[in-house]
Design goal:
The complex is a heterodimer of chains A (about 100) and B (about 1000).
Chain A (H helix, E strand, L loop, with lengths): L2 E4 L4 E4 L4 E5 L13 H9 L7 E7 L7 E7 L5 E6 L7 H8 L1
Chain B lengths: L12 E10 L2 E7 L3 H7 L6 E2 L6 E2 L12 E5 L5 E6 L9 E4 L14 H4 L8 H5 L6 H13 L15 E12 L3 H11 L5 E4 L16 E2 L2 E2 H14 L3 E4 L2 E7 L3 E7 L14 E13 L3 E3 L12 E3 H11 L6 E6 L3 H11 L3 E7 L6 H9 L4 E3 L1 E7 L6 E8 L2 E2 L4 E4 L2 E5 L2 E3 L2 H5 L4 E4 L4 E4 L6 E3 L9 H11 L8 E2 L24 E3 L4 E2 H9 L5 H8 L12 H12 L3 H4 L13 H5 L16 H6 L3 E5 L2 E6 L7 H14 L1 E5 L4 E6 L3 H8 L12 E7 L5 E11 L2 E6 L4 H15 L6 E4 L4 E7 L3 H5 L3 E2 L12 E7 L2 E7 L7 E7 L3 H12 L4 E3 L2 H10 L34 H4 L2 H4 L4 E8 L11 E3 L10 E11 L4 E9 L8 E5 L4 E7 L15
Parallel strand pairs in B: 1-7, 8-9, 8-15, 9-12, 15-29, 17-25, 18-19, 18-25, 19-20, 35-46
Antiparallel strand pairs in B: 1-2, 3-4, 5-6, 5-7, 10-11, 10-30, 13-14, 14-15, 16-26, 21-22, 22-23, 22-24, 27-28, 31-32, 33-34, 35-41, 36-39, 36-40, 37-38, 38-39, 41-45, 42-43, 43-44, 44-45, 47-50, 47-52, 48-49, 49-50, 51-52
Classes of the chains: A alpha+beta (about 100), B alpha+beta (about 1000).
Chain lengths: ~100, ~1000
């Protein structure tokens, strides 16, 4: 069972308090009606299936009930970092630094 | 019966003899014995029959790695455990155990015919042999295979025991209480850190228990052990857990430990849990799991009496049992000599030491010579003799890579073997640590750790007492304070299949004893094209038995590596997975059995329903009253009565389980516009609207009536099962897509008790008790909500209906629920008030064509499919799911649409889920055009009704469709979804 640091609670809590919420940084288009079917399908269905560094969302469902973002290594399953919703995707160098 | 007990040896308590039975025969042993050691003391080596070939088998080992000696442990009804390793089963007075997988008995087993016809059972024989005819599988092959091949029987009764679970935290968890583990725990606990030391055995000590002659700091091993354990015991920061197996090593140093509490006790204390699962989060994990001795792969290596050398040493030194009178030793490693010398010193005749190696250390040869033991170097065992027990071995010279033709027979009643040592890297691998191949020991050892963990001692490939103590102590943060005197561990060679002078196709050299896999099977798998070790494993089943190949994996990997011609370093190991040893379901379940299996949510009115004979059904986590039978009524009769009463007089229903979410804030209406298909901006305060929620993919996700209490406040209801996911989706969009909206969401499901009153008398009953709300039909129309009081208690009163009758839903704070229910029920007797349950609710709503999301929809139904395009706010620029409704596939003709069905025979109630076809009498497979979603007997209409989804269904209104069932094909006519009161006049009865 993983330990996950909720960036809002600022605490490491066991995985059972959380719920996975899919890939991160997929923004809902501001005007979906302007999109063609292909672009809409891309938004709706197409996700990365990354081996390695993955950006994903988690939901502190049995805690503060906040959604947040995380960088996790899908090989080791380890969380590299978590950060608040709305913050930009961390740069590779930043991730590499934490991984050190 | 001959006694193989040796005086002056062992840690058993000889003060009192205790009795036990094995296969209905009584034997005697001592406290401190295992079933294995006690049977061996009685001269019993034959313990079971093998999995596939039913070959007689004896004890291979002395611990949890045991592959052969599986027994059924019987402690009475509800306490029968099969496949227990006799080598770990602690003896107590009155213990009862049975052998497995034999008929009619262990000594004469009819299934042994499999052994003679073994050419019929090569690798993958299930896949190859039992292919055809298909119908034979469940009637012939499967029952026969089940009977012949297998392990112990599954228990037939519910488990009579209960189980506990605990969470624990520590700075250091040490796994394995051998010398390295104890040294680690001593060092780690010195400064006050919380340390847990866990070991699977009943006694802590590991290899020291089998090695009393060694000296540490001038003390004999057992003295040092006692003193060290006492030191640890006295430290308040140390927890010692014996009989505790670390079954799995999970992420972030989270480990599962199963502690066995009662299986070793003669008297069962029903108050005590049988096992306890410890879930431990550790700062650091020190693995000191030891190593497992490896068998040699040669013809007849599985006969009773052939065992690992270290096991014989354990039986002698720990249990005071000699494994035979005339013991031969076959080895490729120095470590076997120590066992031979121990046995010899205890007065057991060593017929010879057969060593594969041409060069053996002079010191060992000298020590053997001193004891009068013959050592045959450069010699290989080519076969064994004896049916139920080994009587001798055939040996041949092995020189310059060639086995000579001549064989010599050596008599023995026991053959000990050592093919090297395999570090126990299981837990390290669970934690996703990587391994590296170490050539000098022919095994994989830990390489890169994925967690904060250190492997010490033999599990790290560090053999020998002194080296293990040092590594353990340093890992625990200490130095190396130990001085030791020990027999040098020595070196050895590892082999694949041993060379032989016999025809390799005619011998059986076992690799995996428990699954009866021979080296031939592995070679055959490779020959047939399996090149990955994971595939070889699955095809041959090597390493897939309950022991997970603890003794066999390394031999299997080396044989496969040779056959595939890939160096063993590159072929990799198969994946180790938890649990380390077989674990009871009870331990994993813990307290969460029976009534505690899952959460049962109950409404505040549940107790009244219980008191009044309700039959309940689970609805998501809720338990809901399904119907209220009177006298001898069955469900059909009760539901008919409840429906009739509600339509004609008055029904009362507990609707408290409805999900409720309070949506509040200046942007509440804007948010509702985005979340639901319907328009909310113009909804007047005090009015309600049916809301439809879609997933972003355009399919119906949830529905419910939503009331507007203020400009900035909505009382949202959801389906009973849907509330959590609706709230989650709302939170998701609010937090991540529209964080600029000033809206707050609160789950209020459990804040409100909800009583639904339905029927022509509903208003009459309610009116006298309400203050602050005008219930008149004009002042309080259908689909309106008011706040006021009922019996002086604040209420949110909805005029809504899920039955088609005049209806009210009275929300009061939850703890008033039952009191209100009782007051209304008593007052309602004047109007023939009838409590009804979910079944009647379902019938009444189906008569009106109201859908239930999840029953009439299945995640592929759009609003239009459900005939609810009216619920879509056409002018809204956007809402969740809107764009998807414009997708080509959702716009395409031929989609399944919700329709009503009336069977030609009104007495036929169709089966929900039944498939629908356009024409009867098609050949199988028929072309299916839809299925029945809801189907009931309607007392109101005195006939059956059904809802269904049918391809282009609405356009086919009036046509017949067919529902083929095993006994008969039913005909039905497609009709509108509303069966009763289509104009809705009954909603407005005065």
């Amino acid at each position: 069972m993983l330990l996950i640091k909720c960036p809002y609670c600022e605490e490491e809590r066991p995985e059972i308090e959380f719920s996975y919420a899919g890939e991160a940084h997929i923004v809902r288009p501001t005007d979906p009606s302007k999109m063609d079917d292909t672009a809409w399908a891309e938004y709706l269905f197409i996700r990365d299936n990354t081996r390695g560094v993955h950006y994903e969302r988690w939901y502190h469902i049995h805690g503060c009930a906040r959604f947040f973002n995380a960088v996790r290594d899908t090989i080791s399953d380890k969380f590299i970092m978590t950060y608040k919703m709305g913050l930009p995707r961390p740069a590779d160098v930043e991730i590499a630094k934490v991984k050190e | 019966m001959k006694n193989f007990r040796k005086t002056g040896r062992g840690r058993i308590r000889r003060a009192r003899l205790i009795s036990f039975t094995f296969d209905d025969r009584q034997y005697q042993g001592f406290v401190g014995d295992t079933l294995a050691s006690a049977l061996l003391a009685n001269g019993v080596h034959l313990i079971g029959r093998s999995f596939k070939y039913h070959r007689p088998r004896g004890f291979l080992g002395a611990g949890s790695e045991e592959a052969n000696a599986l027994v059924t442990f019987d402690r009475g009804p509800g306490r029968v455990t099969s496949n227990v390793r006799a080598t770990t089963l602690e003896l107590f007075d009155g213990l009862v155990a049975y052998s497995q997988n034999n008929y009619p008995n262990l000594k004469f087993d009819l299934g042994a015919i499999n052994d003679i016809f073994s050419m019929m059972f090569p690798a993958g024989f299930y896949n190859k042999t039992f292919m055809w005819p298909k119908s034979f599988w469940d009637k012939v092959y499967e029952p026969v295979i089940r009977k012949l091949a297998g392990l112990g029987p599954a228990p037939t009764e519910a488990d009579a025991d209960h189980y506990a679970s605990l969470y624990g935290h520590c700075e250091v968890l040490v796994v394995g209480a051998g010398p390295a583990g104890i040294a680690a725990a001593l060092a780690a606990s010195e400064k006050g850190d919380r340390v847990i030391l866990a070991d699977e055995q009943n006694e802590l000590g590991g290899s020291l228990l089998s090695n009393p002659e060694a000296r540490i700091d001038g003390q004999l091993a057992w003295q040092w052990l006692d003193k060290s354990l006492e030191t640890l015991w006295l430290r308040k920061n140390v927890t010692l857990l014996s009989r505790t197996t670390v079954i799995g090593y999970y992420h972030d140093n989270f480990l599962g430990l199963v502690e066995r509490l009662t299986d070793h006790q003669g008297d069962i204390n029903p108050a005590s849990p049988r096992e306890c699962l410890h879930r431990i989060r550790a700062g650091k994990v020190i693995l000191a799991a030891g190593a497992i001795e490896r068998p040699l792969v040669f013809a007849g290596n599985d006969r009773p009496g052939v065992m690992l050398a270290s096991a014989a040493q354990t039986y002698l030194n720990r249990y005071g049992v000699a494994v035979g009178d005339n013991v031969a030793v076959f080895t490729s490693h120095d470590s076997a000599y120590e066992t031979a010398f121990d046995l010899s010193d205890a007065g057991v005749k060593i017929s010879s030491i057969i060593d594969l190696r041409a060069d053996v250390s002079e010191i060992l040869l000298q020590q053997a010579h001193e004891r009068g033991i013959a050592v045959l170097t450069g010699t290989v065992v080519c076969g064994t003799k004896g049916r139920l027990r080994i009587t001798g071995v055939r040996v041949a010279k092995f020189q310059n890579q060639k086995v000579s033709n001549g064989t010599e027979h050596i008599a023995c009643d026991c053959l000990l073997m050592t093919g090297g040592w395999t570090p126990s890297v299981h837990l390290f691998s669970h934690s996703k640590g990587s391994l590296k191949w170490q050539d000098d020991i022919g095994a994989a050892v830990p390489d890169m750790a994925n967690e904060n963990t250190l492997s010490v001692g033999a599990c790290n490939g560090t053999f020998g007492l002194s080296a293990g103590l040092e590594e353990g102590s340093i890992a625990g943060g200490g130095g190396n304070p130990f001085r030791t005197e020990e027999t040098e561990f020595g070196t050895g060679q590892t082999w694949q299949t041993l060379p032989t002078n016999r025809d390799p196709s005619r011998i059986k050299a076992f690799v995996d004893f428990q699954n009866d896999v021979t080296e031939k099977d592995i070679n055959l798998a490779v020959l047939e094209g399996f090149k990955s070790i994971e595939h070889v494993k699955r095809y041959t089943t090597t390493g897939m038995a309950t022991d997970q190949g603890k003794t066999s994996n390394l031999n299997a990997v080396q044989i496969a590596s040779k056959a595939i011609q890939i160096p063993v370093q590159k072929i990799g190991l198969t994946t180790f997975r938890p649990p380390f040893t077989p674990t009871s379901f009870g331990a994993l379940v813990g307290h969460r059995a029976d009534d505690l299996f899952d959460v049962t949510r109950k409404t505040s009115i549940d107790g009244w329903a219980d008191d009044n004979g309700a039959v309940f059904e689970p609805v998501s986590l809720w338990r809901r009253a399904r119907y209220f039978p009177q006298g001898n009524e069955d469900m059909h009769a009760a539901v008919a009565r409840e429906c009739k009463a509600t339509r004609n007089e008055l029904g009362i229903f507990d609707a408290s389980t409805l999900g409720k979410i309070e949506v509040v804030g200046p942007d509440a209406a804007k948010f509702m516009n985005l979340m639901y298909t319907n328009p909310w901006t113009m909804l007047a305060i005090g009015r309600c609207r049916y809301g439809l929620m879609l997933h972003e993919d355009g399919y119906i996700m949830d529905d419910g009536v939503i009331g507007r209490l203020a400009d900035d406040r909505f009382h949202v209801t959801t389906t009973t099962g849907g509330a959590p996911r609706v709230l989650r989706m709302m939170e998701d969009y609010l937090q991540t897509e529209w964080p600029d909206l000033n809206v707050w969401l609160t789950s209020t499901t459990e804040q409100w008790a909800v009583i639904a009153l339905n029927g022509p008398h509903a208003r009459k009953l309610l009116e006298p008790f309400i203050d602050g709300i005008d219930l008149g039909p004009e002042a309080f129309p259908h689909m309106a909500v008011r706040e006021g009081t009922i019996f002086g208690v604040e209420t949110r009163l909805f005029r809504v209906s899920f039955s088609g009758e005049l209806g009210f839903e009275i929300n009061v704070p939850a703890h008033y629920g039952r009191a209100l229910w009782e007051k209304l029920f008593n007052a309602g007797k004047a109007y023939g008030i009838t409590p009804y349950g979910t079944e009647t609710m379902h019938v009444l709503r189906a008569e009106k064509g109201y859908i239930i999301v999840g029953q009439d929809t299945d995640g592929t139904i759009t609003p239009d499919d459900a005939g609810m395009s009216w619920a879509i706010g056409k002018k809204k620029p956007d809402f969740v799911g809107k764009r998807s409704l414009a997708r080509a596939d959702i716009q395409a003709p031929g989609r399944k649409q919700l329709v009503g069905l009336l069977t030609t025979d009104p007495n036929i109630v169709l089966e929900e889920g039944a498939q629908i076809v356009a024409t009867p009498g098609q050949s199988v497979p028929m072309t299916m055009i839809g299925h029945v979603t809801s189907s009931y007997w309607s007392t109101t209409l005195n006939r059956s009704i059904a809802l269904a989804v049918v391809k282009s269904g609405r356009a086919q209104t009036g046509s017949n469709i067919y529902v083929p069932m095993p006994e008969k094909t039913h005909e039905a006519k497609i009709c509108a979804t509303v069966f009763y009161d289509p104009k809705g006049e009954r909603l407005n009865v005065v």
